[in-house]
Specification:
- The chain has 7 helices and 8 strands, in the order E-E-E-H-E-E-H-H-H-E-H-E-E-H-H.
- By secondary structure, the protein is α/β, with parallel strands linked by helices.
- It has one domain: Rossmann fold.
- The strands form 2 sheets. The chain has a 5-stranded parallel beta sheet, with helices on both faces. A 3-stranded antiparallel beta sheet has the order 2-1-4, with helices on one face.
- Helix 2 packs parallel to helix 4.
- The protein starts with a strand and ends with a helix.
- The chain binds adenosine-5'-triphosphate (ATP).
- The site of adenosine-5'-triphosphate has 11 residues, from helix 1.
- It comes from Lentibacter algarum.
- It holds the Pfam family ABC_tran.
- GO terms for molecular function: ATP binding; ATP hydrolysis activity; transmembrane transporter activity.
- This is Heme exporter protein A.
- One of its GO terms (biological process) is cytochrome complex assembly.
Length: 205
């Protein structure tokens, strides 16, 4: 698995936010996207995962290779924790939800309706979902929000195991997960300038 992203431009609300983003990622690697609030990390991740079209550029991998997890994880509130994981396993055509249940310490919560989980427990369920997708590239937007220290460590272990098994991950996070094979990309340099800014001098001449 090799992901190559070339000259990708992405937009939000009809306005270009990032221009000409290029990077490559191999199996076993994690890419940590960095940049200030509002620069376009979420927009970039959503575009990579195929949830919105790119303005321009190339992504060599099919979105079907990717699993996306963000703040809204598509958790079904009335289904139990176990039913949620079983549902996703059926959607993605995979088997065996127990490893995900164990990795995120959800076993004791298996019968609880997801709507009754705390914010951190919900996030753990959303991250456990990644494991049952069976997809090689995980695209993660602020995955550690709401997680306590113990849960952050659980998540770090799961990501490390995913990379060791030949998967890859792209994530926007401010937390150092101590991953062995992580590279970082500061997207500040790719900020798209608006037409007004492009012609700023001319506007005054
Ligand atoms: N619906 C929208 N219409 C217009 N602009 C939007 C819309 N949603 C977001 N934006 C703007 O698009 C830009 C990129 O937003 P995005 O959420 O991708 O940034 P981010 O880097 O993930 O930010 P943060 O670190 O705060 O989560 C921001 O300037 C934001 O204000």
């Amino acid at each position: 698995m090799e992901l190559h992203v070339q000259k990708l431009s992405v937009a939000r609300g009809g306005l270009a936010v990032l221009k000409d983003v290029s990077f490559s990622l191999s199996a076993g690697q994690a890419l940590v996207i960095r940049g200030p609030n509002g620069i376009g990390k979420t927009t970039l991740l959503r575009t990579l995962a195929g949830l919105q079209p790119a303005l321009a550029g190339e992504i060599n991998l099919d979105p079907d290779m990717m699993a996306y997890a963000a703040h809204v994880d598509g958790i079904k509130a009335t289904l139990s924790v176990e039913e949620n994981l079983a549902f996703w396993a059926s959607v993605f055509g995979t088997q065996g939800i127990e490893p995900a249940m164990i990795a995120f310490a959800l076993s004791d919560l298996r019968d609880r309706p997801a709507g009754m989980l705390s914010a951190g427990q919900k996030r753990r369920l959303g991250l456990a979902r990644l494991m049952v997708t069976g997809r090689p590239v995980w695209v993660l937007d602020e995955p550690t929000v709401s997680l306590d220290q113990v849960a952050v460590a659980m998540f770090g272990k799961v990501i490390e195991a995913h990379l060791e098994a030949g998967g890859a991950a792209i994530m926007a996070t401010h937390i150092d997960l101590g991953l062995k094979n992580a590279i970082s990309l500061d997207i500040g340099a790719y900020k798209a300038t608006s037409a007004l800014e492009d012609n700023f001098d001319e506007a005054f001449l």
